[in-house]
Amino acid sequence: MLSAIKSSFQPLTKQYGDTRWWLGMLLVVVLAGASVALSKLPIMQSAQFSSLTIGIVLGIIVGNSVFARIATRTDVGVDYAKSILLKAGIILFGFRITFAQVAGVGWHGLLTDVVMLLGTFILAVQLGKRVFKLDEQTTILIGAGSSICGAAAVMATEPVIKAQAHKVSVAVATVVVFGTLSMFAYPIMFEYMGVSEHAYGIFVGSTIHEVAQVVAAGTTVSANAADTAVIEKMLRVMMLAPFLVGLSFWQSKKHANINAHGGEQKAGISIPWFAVLFIVASGVHSLSVIPQGTTNAIIWFDNILLTIAMVALGLRTHVGAIRQAGIKPLLLAGCLFLFLTLAGFAINVGIAQLF
Asked: What's the pTM?
């Protein structure tokens, strides 16, 4: 793991002396600042559009207009933000979670999240491959975003499978569309579910895409439902690390088999070190050795890093590539939305009866 970290940061000495690094970083930081400012507007807050979502949209707009003229003078910094800063943001994301929160929802919440994660991702892979004939990268990204924690999961999965920027943007778009739909639909559904606020919170946390959307769907019903939903969602977020490690093993094994049949040397296992450090960050946060004010500052800074990464991703996304992807990614995400909502409710009720 140490060698992987070292290799990731080795190019820094060269980059710091490169004007393209500084200009590229300046570009993404300015656009990220604009995204954060826009996210503070009442209309954006009422729609629960985070700076991450605004950042990728703003990045796509600039990337498909003026960026082409300055790409050769800013590309090093933009690509650095899209890779290294993204991984740093995922690591710091661990400071949002404690092991005590995980224990708070008990075995009931844990089992529900595991079943929903595995069920949603396996369904995504099968539908994407067999029904919609989508490429593997797009399928995995949409599956990760739907089954774990929305845009953050899509971004964390990107370096593991080395996905192309436009495929990441497509996956993030599906999270925005169906996560937003869930945010408004779930509170309406609550009146007809016949479940307690606590059970509703477990359902919300185990099935809705983004953390912000979970907060909105839970708060609309009650503070108790919101608290339960957020804790359940945080448990689901914590599963991001083992998911990435498992995905890396699966990809390495698959490529090793392909290479073996082709007579080439087998590929080695590549463990995503940033996923391991994500758990370490959660462990440190769980020990309460860092003052709450410092933790809040880390979370704020993490949001900035992730927004910068989203902007960089948008800058590298070409609208033509998204258009070429067609409607199939949305259809796949729509099927996963129906699974999360309908089958997810049935799974929640079934597991609840076991405890």
From this structure: 0.77
